[in-house]
Amino acid sequence: MLGLNKKDATLLGVVAVLVIFAPFILNPFPADSAMAQFNAGYPDLMQRFVIFGIFAVGFNLLFGLTGYLSFGHAAFLGVGSYSAVWMFKLLSMNVIPAILLSMVIAGLFALLIGFISLRRTGIYFSILTLAFAEMSFRLAYSVLTPITNGETGLQLTLEDPRILGQTATESGGIPVTNLFGLEMRSTEVLNLGGWSFQFNNGYYMAGALLLVAFYISIRIFRSPFGMMLRAVKSNQQRMNYTGLNTKPYTLAAFVISGMYAGLAGGLMASMDPLAGAERMQWTASGEVVLMTILGGAGTLIGPVLGAGFIKYFENIFSKINEAVLHSWFHALPDGLENAIVWVFEHFVGSGWHLTLGLLFMLVVTFLPGGLVEGGQRLGRLFGRKKDAEEKTATQSTPAE
Amino acid sequence: MDAIILQILNGLDKGSAYALIALGLTLIFGTLGVVNFAHGALFMIGAFCAVSLNKLLNLSFETVDPTRTDFLGNPAKIKTPYVESWFGPEFGAALIDWSVPLAILFSIPIMIAIGFIMERGLIKHFYRRPHADQILVTFGLAIVLQELIKHYYGANPIQTPAPDAFRGSFDFGAILGFDPNTIIYPYWRMIYFAFAAVVIGGVFAFLQFTTFGMVVRAGMADRETVGLLGINIDKRFTIMFGLAAAVAGLAGVMYAPINSPNYHMGMDFLVLSFVVVVVGGMGSLPGAVAAGFLLGILESFASMNEIKSILPGIDQIIIYVAAIIILLTRPRGLLGRKGVMED
Fold it and tell me: What sections of the protein cross the membrane (chain B) (predicted)?
């Protein structure tokens, strides 16, 4: 199907089902129950899942396949956001031209930065990309204020020309982003019993793009081009000795990966039309590295899982505070309760980054393949058990 | 002319901090072959050693003074630090005043202990793993350390003053024969530079003139051969890691009065220090120090108004521009050796 083998088609199908039914899957608790705060099925968060999923899938095309660790990928995301917002300001509120432009501009940026950075490998490459990203971040904050609006961030105003659209709505407000009239922020709510499920236009558009991005990533992984990139990862020197120039391949991977980041940035701006320089800061680049590694670098589904995992738990953990913890453990004796709450409060609420850091260290140390490898190990564990059980089953029924 | 001297002086203190951190990074890299992204966190922990000592010395008990009243008419409560009651008011006050220099003594054992624990507990297991894994795990560690500090000390910068005696500024121009008040330089920054010079000199002397240092240098050049000679090189490298941690910590302690410590200062310095190390040449100790001062001074020149008016924004990015230019023209950095990090 679609030029994929059965296994990949199944994988794509699973992701598609997850994306389509996410509003149900992420909303397991009734809206008025005490657990409702742990629902993740609201538009803002779901949009973040898919957008960061796209970002991580793109990053994985570079890091997972070629082994080049870029610490400056957020620059492309930021550039994409700025271009998209400019498109909303100048052309129209339709998201298609905005997303196209953000991909093109991010691609051009990636071409320039990649052309220079890819002259070096290993840690030098990481430092060069980091340097470029920090440069973009600082320039966006200071000199480029006419383009980026500095610390305030780039926003839409009522004076923007929007030559193909309207400057202001009839009621005098700023028009909203849309896809040929379909408003990105509008949400259908389906109330079923105690549950309320939200279906957001923006989420489904981003989700569709995630599927496209994921499909392209599968095709790249399985193509001769992807094979070439993996050869670069395993031994670039040997590739060079065979007389092959690897630069065009790595540069192409870098640009594709940059365009993915630009797409993510453009989508981010489409959901909420503003762009700030902090999206380019190196901590943002670090985040996508965390997502990819946590999920499993070099695997297809890993980055999507990692992005979902980090964004989900960031959201959930940040909501738990001391009072919630006390209510959970209040059955215990007081001293024990306080001790447990004292331990846990380090890890929840604003301590979420601590949990993330620890988790990340554990994953890098014990599970270099990330969540995907963890899943495979579990699968093998249970698979073997099943085999063993089958064996004992056959043994216990001797054939007389 | 006076402006140039002033900018050089201004660059020295930041350059000293870069040089100290980069020196530690290079020591770790040269000995253990590990890229330590948590080094900035060590710098930050050093600064928080100064904060902690300051807070410890300021621990007070309250007494009620019935002869005086506060503005509500209640008897006034007077806070007396314990040290003042133990050692007498004058010596106690002096102790509190000198908390930052005292923190040097306080921080060295702490930093060495942290360095040992880090190396034995975590980094030891990453010698044989790819550099990317080392970067990632130490990056995770840096996040953890940073968040722990944030949890206990809060997110706001904490003022940690230098001793009273060093709070003023020094009229440098008067000595060199310029008009008074043209080149003014705070005392503490001068001390920082002198301190950095002493530490750097000490590390180099230690490596150059002691038997231990000789063995370590031999180990850096060829670890296997040194091991074959029956020397336990791993143990010495662990000690070097502790030393590197102490150097970063000391840089942090002394930097506390210049820039109030906050939990993300380590990350801010780390990114720049890595650029410094790469510019100086991975694995070259003199290169790291030279590049640290060079980039510090370059940065302060770029922030001159005359230069900013020609190239706006250059002060923000000069270090990165310099790094890019140097990496592309001299791929091994200023003083890099052949064969380091070129796999």
Answer: 16-35, 42-61, 98-123, 190-216, 237-258, 270-298, 310-328
Instruction: Please list every residue in chain B whose beta carbon sits closer than 8 Å to the beta carbon of residue A232.
Output: none
Q: What is the pLDDT along chain B (343 residues), one digit of tens a residue?
A: 777 888 888 888 888 988 998 998 888 888 888 888 888 899 999 999 999 998 888 888 877 777 777 777 777 777 778 877 788 777 888 888 888 888 888 899 999 999 999 999 888 888 888 877 888 888 889 888 988 888 888 888 888 888 887 777 777 777 777 777 777 778 888 888 999 999 999 999 999 999 999 998 888 888 889 889 998 888 888 999 999 999 999 999 988 888 888 888 887 788 788 888 888 887 788 889 999 999 988 888 888 877 777 777 777 788 888 888 887 788 777 887 665 555 4
A-chain CB neighbours of B312 within 8 Å are: 142-143
Taking alpha carbons only, the member of A41, A141, A269 closest to residue B315 is: A141
Name the closest residue on chain A to residue B278, using Cα atoms.
A124
Q: Is the Cβ of A351 closer than 8 Å to some Cβ of chain B?
A: yes
Instruction: Tell me B124's DSSP state.
Output: G
Q: Is A142 within 8 Å of B312 when comparing Cβ atoms?
A: yes
Choose the closest CB to B135 out of A126, A142, A143.
A126
What residue ranges define each of the domains in chain A, with the CATH number in brackets?
A: 6-299 (1.10.3470)
A282 touching B (Cβ < 8 Å): yes
**Cβ <8 Å between B342 and A365:** no
CB contact under 8 A, A361 and B141: yes
Taking the C-alpha atoms of residue A57 and residue A64, their distance in angstroms, rounded to an integer, is 9
ipTM: 0.79
CB B22 within 8 A of CB B252: no
Using a CB-CB distance cutoff of 8 angstroms, which residues of chain B are in contact with residue A146? none
- CB within 8 Å: A361 and B133: no
Decide if B324 and A138 are in contact by the 8 Å CB cutoff.
Answer: no
Q: Going from the N-terminus, what domains does chain B have, and what CATH number goes with each?
A: 2-329 (1.10.3470)
* Whole-Å CA distances, A296 to A90, A263, A287: 40, 22, 14
Rg for chain B (alpha carbons), in Å? Answer: 23
| Beta carbons of B327 and A120 less than 8 Å apart | yes
> φ, ψ for residue B184 (rounded to 5)?
-110, 140
DSSP per residue, A27-44: --S-TTSGGGGG---SHH
Alpha helices in chain A (DSSP H): 6-25, 43-66, 74-90, 95-117, 122-141, 145-148, 201-222, 224-234, 236-241, 247-271, 282-295, 302-319, 322-329, 334-344, 352-366, 370-396
Closest-CA distance, A218 to chain B, in angstroms, reads: 24
User: What is the phi/psi pair of residue B18, to 5°?
Assistant: -55, -45
